[in-house]
Amino acid sequence: MTKILILQGPNLNRLGSREPSTYGTRTLEEIHEEIRALGTETGFAPIFFQSNHEGALVDRIHQAGDEGVHGIVANLGAYTHTSIAIRDALLSVGLPVVEVHLSNVYKRESFRKKSLISDISAGVIGGLGPIVYRLGVLGILDLLKNPGKNPISS
Ligand code: DQA
Questions:
Q1: How many angstroms separate the first and last alpha carbons of the chain?
Q2: What is the rounded distance in angstroms from the CA atom of residue 103 to the CA atom of residue 39?
């Protein structure tokens, strides 16, 4: 079965109570439950990992490369804007990545407009709330069916 890593960066464990006017009121577990339901419906196996630590995220990406994960939906939180290490880890495994954000980062502070991940991602989805994860997974599944569309493997 297709395995998709849902990678969550720092502070996303606080969803539900964290800045609800920006990130909504759904918890991370509730969001994961919606992704699980989509997995049951459409036939993929989600693997969930959240960490507040850059190195742990790097290690989990390496592990994904070694364990036959097919693609990564990544909300790297603030590391999106700062982490060369996570960018390099994603490049090192060469899996298709969709970058997602709950909020529309382009409507926010200017430092959020820069991403170190977007140009190595197959796609970027943001600003729509928790549905971004499910859209990201559907995007990866579509890419896997049509690998020529994946800018990383082409
Ligand atoms: C975020 C946007 C980032 O700028 C921020 O640091 C986050 C969450 C989002 O989902 O909108 O932690 O990735």
A1: 24
A2: 24
Q: Is the pLDDT of residue 126 over 50?
A: yes
Whole-angstrom distance, CA of residue 36 vs CA of residue 42: 10
Probe residue for ligand 1, chosen from 75, 83, 128 as the CB with the greatest number of ligand atoms within 8 Å: 75
- 0.90 exceeded by pTM: yes
Residues acting as catalytic residues: 23, 101
Q: What is the pLDDT of residue 146?
A: 85
pLDDT attached to residue 154: 42
Length of the chain: 154
What are the two backbone dihedrals, phi and then psi, of residue 29, each rounded to the nearest 5 degrees? -65, -40
Q: pLDDT, tens digit, for every residue of 64-101?
A: 999 999 999 999 999 999 999 999 999 999 999 999 99
Question: How would you class 98 by CB atoms within 10 Å of its CB: exposed for 0-12, middle for 13-18, buried for 19 or more?
Answer: buried
C-alpha span between 4 and 96 (Å, rounded): 10
